[in-house]
Amino acid sequence: MPDRTAEVADRDAPSASSTPSVPSAGRTSVRPAGGGPGGRRRTGSQWRKRLEILFFTAPALILFTLFVVWPIIKAVQFSFYRWKGFGPLVDFVGLKNYVSVLQNDVFIGALEHNLIVVVMSIVLQLPLGLAIALLLNRRMRGQGTLRTIIFVPYVLAEVIAGVVWFQLLQPQYGVIDTLLGAVGLHGPEQGFLGTPKYALMTVIVVLTWKYLGLAVLLFLAGLQSVPDELYEAAQIDGAGWWETQRRIAIPLLGPTIRTWAFLSMIGSLQLFDMVWILTGGGPANATTTMATFLVTEGTKRHNFGIASAASVILFVVALVLALTYQRFVLRRDLQPSRTHKAKKVTR
Amino acid sequence: MKRTAVLRTLAVGASIALLASACSSGSGGSDDSSDGASGDAVTVTWWHNSNTAPGKDYYEQVAKDFEADNPGVKIEISAMQHEDMVTKLDAAFQGGDAPDIYMERGGGELADHVEAGLTKDLSESSKETIDKLGGSVAGWQVDGKTYGLPFSLGVVGFWYNKALFAQAGITEPPATWDDFNADVEKLKAAGIEPVSVGAGDKWPAAHYWYYFAMRECSQDVLADAVKSLDFSDPCFVKAGEDLEALIKTEPFNAGFLATPAQEGPTSASGLLATRKVAMEMQGHWEPGVMQGLTEDKKGLGEDTGWFPFPPVDGGKGAPTAALGGGDAWAVSEDAPDAAVDFVNYLLSDEVQKGFAENSMGLPTNASASQYVADPALAELLKVRDAAPYVQLYFDTAFGQSVGGAMNDEIALLFAGQASPQDIVDATQDAADAEK
């Protein structure tokens, strides 16, 4: 993350030279053939290099194939069968599982909930995270402590945070209802998690509490790499604190924000643990997500074909979103990084 | 240049992977050597759900006794919370490494396991025990063969707190729904929450619908529905209407839609055990669960009471028929013979006696019935033995797919988002998908 922001600062700062210097031997020579102006090397050393590459990447590639590629292939295969989870795959049903998933009100509801979480996460966490990061970026007393406090929820295991919130949100006996009662307010009778119309919003509030720390941390890291000279120059030109943040800090944070939003969206689409602990998808399916749907269908009801079809649909939704986002939003950030990385390596 | 970065990442990944595989190879080696490699040393893995005292300790002692009598046999116990155990069992069956001895609930699930060749036929190897258990094993037979030995067979009913009932001026547990509704009002008037239900886990809520269906539908209709998966008889809709009427009287605890069944003090069982509500409809395992949920490990103690599900006016079902089910020990297809010996030992007069004395359930071995010390459980045992028939929980009888769809829809009715007809339709749809 700091790489990318540093790069932007470099790009915009007039002092940084943009001509890549000639790569020397040593670190750049790791690049495969054709990388440097040095031309082709001897074939022998090329082979050696290829072997080296193979040797070092093989374990990762094997693990990746075993735990990522293979399960995806299996999920696609399962999705064409009716299968109870044990015994041989014999009952081929074609695309029937996909049709029944896409016609299932609960799944469509789950998709809607996922999209609501995607939007609400960004709408809530972006302004809050930015505001906190800008404040914490100022020199002040207790800065370290404050940063820690903001970041602690993110470090906490999701399950533990979930159980704690579940207990806090208990109707009648929970801390939150007790506090509300003390100031003369009443929580909903069925509790925040037990009332269908509040449950999803409650989950989103807990998610915001949990993941705000990550946004703040990333934004702070981005802000740290904005060179002080820029602030000084702005101050000399007569800009106030707010003006400086608006015209310098936030624009330079652009790539960080875009990357954070990407992570947040993918995380929201795959949302599972917090929902599972807090509500299990209930009450009355008010908080189901695509992930809870497929777990219910799979492990609870043993409809592994339908669960696999749902997981393939989730995969496609996430992939399409990721590719579209990269194509239209992240492209600006990814392309110039090439020249920058080269520069950095040779420095 | 970008590739350099990629390569670097891969290199880091590779070294992490190497580290990880180095670590895992260190711990993985020791496991296989003990499993039946030599003739004398056999390890039998046993999963059960008595994860709280005194059941947990009792089973540890039972395993120790068996090990002492059978040198070379080692019983490896995993005591788990019930829902955890069910989840892990599913995974174990898929992965092909099921424990040697596990709990089998019978019905549609067992039929699936038998069809997939996962469960050992015990008809011959446990003949003596099967004869002793008599009719109780019926739920664990597929095509005339016995695949599980039930160790506890109980019925669902209302567990109540005698002290809270007295406090609300209720002298006798309700015998009709009119009494029940009147008692709910009395409890509310006394500032006591009447009934807790763990609708968050769905099945405790679904039990209400099952029971109403049993009161509304004749035994023939039910037996036929279990076999043919046909729910067109109007009595199933009437069951939903009865349930809807009950929910309208608002007897349930605040937040019941999100309340778990029996995990923690804020679960439905926890609320009853900690004297926050007056009653809960739950299975025969309730006293054991409540004991584990209170600090003094006594549950409601002396105040524990039990009454059966009241009959419905004009219902075609037998008014004393009971909804219930039980747990049986089943043995994996590829388990060692010692596992079968141990299961037979678990159903011996001696072990079932201790099982009864520790209030761990309702013994199926008739010789142990007299040792059921808990008066509430003894009451329940009377009802079980007097019932014209004990209907296996519908979700178990129909199998997970149909049962799951049915339970979900019943939970929606509790939330006011499904009609009695919706329950029948959703169940029928899931059943038709099975055919």
The mean pLDDT of chain B is 86
Tell me the number of structural domains of chain B: 2
Count the strands of chain B? 12
In terms of structural class, how would the helical and strand content of chain A be classed? Answer: mainly alpha
Order of helices and strands of chain B: HEHEHEHHEEEEHHEHHHHEHEEHHHEHHH
Strand order of the largest sheet of chain A: 1-2
- Give me the secondary-structure category of chain B: alpha/beta
Largest sheet of chain A: 2 strands, antiparallel
Number of separate strands of chain A = 2
- Helix count, DSSP H or I runs of 4 or more residues of chain B: 18
Terminal Cα separation of chain A, in Å?
19 Å
The string of secondary-structure elements of chain A, in order, is HHEEHHHHHHHHHHHH
CATH topology annotation of the largest domain in chain B: D-Maltodextrin-Binding Protein, domain 2
Straight-line N-to-C gap of chain B: 59 Å
Give the CATH H-level superfamily of the largest domain in chain B: Periplasmic binding protein-like II
Low-confidence stretches of chain A: 1-39, 337-347
Oligomerization state: heterodimer
| Cα-atom radius of gyration of chain A | 25 Å
What's the shape of chain B? Answer: globular
Beta fraction of the residues of chain B? Answer: 5-15%
The number of helices of chain A is 14
